[in-house]
């Protein structure tokens, strides 16, 4: 029986979080779907307990969103996480036994800062809600988005944004922007980057592909989230969003597609690699 070893990186810094619960649920559902493989799932509390997985010990990593400023504050875990990002990226350049990494929201911002990809700055106001996300030309070819419409809908929850990408740097590292914020012609603001294909094995989203309606409703019980949504969209839009939360073609579709497809893709390749080495 083949082993598939998954490490979940909890970036919530001891804050209660729906997202991490959803990531665990998606990982457990994937484990149940693997009848022929022995799947193990281990959790690492990166920011609060300084825990970090050893890259060699796992095949798949999912690094969660979390609160706070993604810029360095001189904490021990920040060095460890930066080293972890480099270890995965470099390992994949020199080894046939690839490691697969998915970066969500805060982790996505940390990686974008670490690899010097553009301007990660504070938004004018906190963004929270179900947002349309637009595919770029490269995003049209992105297999994780294959069954999603354009735009597709995703949960957005962030105080920071990634704007002004350094296209030369992207080219140099072989990275691609695959999704951006919705187009608002009446507002003179740059559209934020919403997803990046960092490499064949590393993918990241600014939005929350793990989010589900129940978690979202739970999050809206938090007054800060509710107010952010009403400020951004107005009361009417807020009520409509709550009403459409469990539409089959919105966040339910996004949740069913992106992370599960990533896990299946990683599994297929991990097994192929194991076979080749056998």
TrEMBL record:
- Give the domain of life: Bacteria
Which of UniProt's keywords are assigned here?
Glutamine amidotransferase, Transferase
Please verify whether the record's keywords include Transferase: yes
SUPFAM superfamilies to which the protein is assigned, alphabetical: Class I glutamine amidotransferase-like
Ranges annotated as spanning the membrane: none
**Is-annotated flag, keyword Transferase?**
yes
The protein's matches in InterPro entries, at most eight in alphabetical order, are given as:
Class_I_gatase-like, GATASE
Record-linked PROSITE patterns: GATASE_TYPE_1
Domain Glutamine amidotransferase, residue spans:
38-213
The UniProt GO MF terms for this protein read: transferase activity
> What Pfam families does the database record attribute to this sequence?
GATase (PF00117)
Its protein name is GMP synthase-Glutamine amidotransferase
């Amino acid at each position: 029986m083949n082993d598939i070893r998954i490490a979940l990186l909890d970036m919530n810094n001891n804050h209660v979080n729906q997202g991490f619960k959803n990531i665990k649920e998606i990982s457990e559902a994937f484990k149940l779907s693997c009848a022929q493989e022995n799947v193990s799932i281990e959790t690492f509390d990166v920011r609060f307990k300084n825990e970090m997985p050893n890259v060699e010990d796992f095949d798949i990593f999912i690094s969660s969103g979390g609160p706070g400023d993604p810029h360095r504050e001189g904490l021990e875990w920040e060095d460890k996480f930066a080293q972890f990002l480099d270890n995965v990226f470099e390992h994949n350049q020199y080894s046939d036994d690839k490691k697969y990494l998915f970066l969500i929201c805060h982790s996505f911002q940390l990686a974008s800062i670490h690899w010097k990809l553009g301007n990660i700055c504070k938004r004018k106001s906190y963004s929270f809600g179900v947002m349309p996300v637009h595919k770029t030309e490269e995003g049209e070819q992105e297999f994780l988005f294959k069954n999603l419409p354009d735009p597709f809908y995703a949960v957005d929850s962030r105080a920071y944004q990634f704007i002004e990408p350094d296209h030369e740097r992207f080219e140099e590292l072989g990275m691609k922007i695959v999704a951006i914020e919705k187009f608002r012609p009446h507002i003179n603001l740059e559209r934020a980057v919403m997803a990046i294909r960092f490499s064949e094995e590393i993918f990241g989203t600014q939005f929350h592909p793990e989010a589900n309606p129940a978690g979202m409703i739970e999050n809206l019980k938090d007054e800060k989230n509710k107010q952010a949504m009403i400020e951004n969209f107005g009361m009417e839009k807020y009520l409509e969003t709550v009403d459409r939360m469990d539409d089959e073609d919105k966040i339910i579709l996004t949740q069913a597609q992106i992370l599960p497809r990533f896990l299946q893709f990683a599994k297929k390749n991990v097994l192929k690699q194991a076979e080749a080495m056998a």
